[in-house]
Amino acid sequence: MRLARNDTGGGGPAIVLVHGGGSGRGTWDAFTRELTGWRVVAPDLRGHGESPRCAQYTLECHADDVAGLLDELDLDAPVLVGHSLGAFAASLVAQRHPDRVARLVLEDPPAPPRDGKRAGGFPRARLAVSALAGGLSRRSFDRNALMSAVHQLREPNPSWWAGLEKIQAPSLVLSGGPASHIPPARLASVAAAIPAAELVTIPVGHRIHSTALPEFTTAVKTFLG
């Protein structure tokens, strides 16, 4: 799997920006312009943008693709920033390869239920395109990729929760507050489960980096120091 990507190149520290379901690498263009001095890499996930369409879209595949991108570009320990589905993929990379991530930013990650019943508060699959794609053209992504992700994220996933304690990178969890379909209380639990994490709420809904770019930029730059 070779993901399409934007790569500013250069010799600065690397930061990898992973978009959410139904979106694409272009969602990070404005934020990229704020990252002077960084090498910024922004891929299209499989089934999105100019990356290949596939018969299968598992959450693990997205994480494997991101890890493969780090290998392909010889990025030793970049900062990983992920939004929504991209945040979930980034969290899996940080769990499985804790030494490969310098810092981790999870923007409104779709934390699945820990156990018990399926997620209540997370969009049903048939609403996923309108709820998560932010009005983007359906031609820019494979609808099955988004539907598959929503189905999987609504199911209890105790192993993902257990894996959060394996994350070694200092982490920032950003919540969109009550306006987001991701329950703020669940994201507080995510931040509490990661050994070195802080939680910041920017109450503008799910797409923080698009809706409140100045506040998002300030929070991330402050975290990065």
Side by side, the strands of the main sheet go 1-3-2-4-5-6-7
Shape: globular
* DSSP strand tally: 7
Question: For the residues shown, what is the average pLDDT?
Answer: 91
Name of the level-1 CATH class:
Alpha Beta
CATH architecture: 3-Layer(aba) Sandwich
Cα gyration radius (Å): 16 Å
**Tally of separate helices:** 9
Helix content: 25-40%
pLDDT < 50 stretches: 123-137
Task: Output the CATH topology.
Answer: Rossmann fold
Task: Give a quick account of the main beta sheet: strands, pairing sense, barrel closure.
Answer: 7 strands, mixed
Order of helices and strands: EEHEHEHEHHHEHEHH
Structural class: alpha/beta
Kindly report how far apart the N and C termini lie: 34 Å
Tally the structural domains.
1
Superfamily at the CATH H level? Alpha/Beta hydrolase fold, catalytic domain
Please indicate the percent range of residues in DSSP E strands (runs of 2 or more): 5-15%
